[in-house]
Each structure stands twice: as C-alpha cells, then as structure tokens.
Amino acid sequence: MGLIVQDVVNPFYPEVMAGVIEAAEKRGWQVVVGSTQNDRDGELALVRSLGRQVDALIGFLSYSDAELAPYLEGVPLVFMDRHQQTSHGVVDVDIETGVRQGIQHLVDRGHQRIGMIDCPWEYGLSRRDCFLAAMEELGLPVDQTWITTSTESVASGEEAFAELRSTHPELTAVFAYNDIVAIGAHRAARRLGLTMPQDCALLGFDGLSFGELLDPPLTTLHIDKRRMGQLAIDQVDGLLLGTPVERSLLPAELVIRGTT
Q1: CA nearest to 73, candidates 89, 54, 59
Q2: Are residues 213 and 98 in the same domain?
C-alpha cells in the first residue's frame, strides 16, 4: 500500500499512519509512505512515482479525479479527509457537525463574538464554511475580518492570534483550524498575559494528545485518527476485491478542557 500525507512532522499524520500500518499488517500488507511536505506542486509527481510501486494508494490529496487520472494510471485510490464528490474511496470527517457542536459549546459558555484562525488548504466544504454556517444558524454576529489565516504551524498560529487580538480585542473566543494552530494561539495568549478562558476562550480541532499537556489544557474537536487509517485499509480491501465501497464518515467529538 502507498500512503501519501501532507507533513510527517505534524503529529496528526503519524497517528493516521499508525492506524494504516496496523490494519495493513493484519492482512500481511506492507505500507510505503510519501509526503508532499505541504507542496501542492509536487503532489501529482508523487502520486505517479509512488503509484507505480504499490497495489493501491491512500492519500491526503487536493487534485480532482480528472486531474489525478493520468497520474494514477488505474491504481485504486482512497481519499482521506475529502469533502467533495469523487468516484474513488473516501474516509471523511464530519466537520460540519463537529464545528456546530464546538461553536454551540462556546455560546453555552456565554460567548457571542467568536473569531477564527483558518488555514487555506481544504477543497470542497471547509472548516471556515462550517464555522460561518454555525454562526449564522445560532444568530450570532460575524465579520469576515474576525477570520484570519495562517499556515499549519505553531509559529504561524501564534502570529495569527496576536494579530487577531490586536485588531479585534472585542473577540472573547477563537476557533483554530487545528490543534497545531491552536497551540500557537495558546502560546500567544500566554505571552500577551491573557487568562484562558476568562479573557479569551480557545477551541482547537483534531484532538492531538499533547493538547492535554498545555496549561490550561486545550478544548478540542477530537478525531480518532488511528480509526481513520484503519477505515482506509478496509476501503482498499474492498477496492482490490472489486466490491463497491461507501464513504466512511468519522465524527469530530467535542472534548472539553481548560481553555473554554
């Protein structure tokens, strides 16, 4: 099996990799891992080169079915975290329900002015879309300037939170694209002398284990990343047998800790 991830340094992906490897080993399969290093320009070349070495591919990929087809050369594919229509296998995350649950939790804690730190990577339904939909559904005010962007790194999350706090001190809570970004925001809040959640609440996404080690610990929307990898192997099994596979949908479950 071939597995393509975006960044082996991001702790999200090793947990997915562990799930893929564990499920593959039970079938006597080997797994070859490749990383795009968050470089979309190298994605298609990696699909072609890795695809020629394996019987099937699992990937966090951004290109459409039509764009990938010449590079796949008929190799079965399972998309990970894909929020749009495809003819291939898919293991997806129910981000819409998860984000709605997270924003509702912030509202229940008394927050009305909620900002977001976004990362411009997803294709199809995005976490930003879900955030805006949840805010509208709950009748909350929202301003596009309450949403800032960062890359998927601690340093960028720190910078984005500091900027958001400087330009919009009226925000009482911030939803971060993922836990990596949220950890940067957490660090910025501490550096600015803010007390969480009293001065500003913080909500992450992904449920990385080291969010528990922060002070205060990070409230997050948790994804079972090992299960995500296992479901991908289950789908590959079906594709190799020539049987129809249905999209697998994982929940993003609210884990309440100290930052809210």
Answers
A1: 54
A2: yes
Number of structural domains, the chain?
Answer: 2
End-to-end CA distance of the chain: 41
Tokens for 100, please give them: 């709605």
Model pLDDT, residue 123: 57
Same-domain check for residues 174 and 240 = no
**Domain region containing 204:** 94-222
| pLDDT tens sequence across 133-175 | 999 999 998 899 999 999 989 999 999 999 999 999 999 999 9
CATH number at residue 236: 3.40.50.2300
Two tokens at 84?
A: 């749009």
Task: Say if residues 229 and 248 touch (Cβ distance below 8 Å).
Answer: no
Q: Which residues make Cβ contacts (< 8 Å) with residue 201, sequence separation at least 6? A: 106, 109, 111, 172, 173, 174, 219, 259, 260
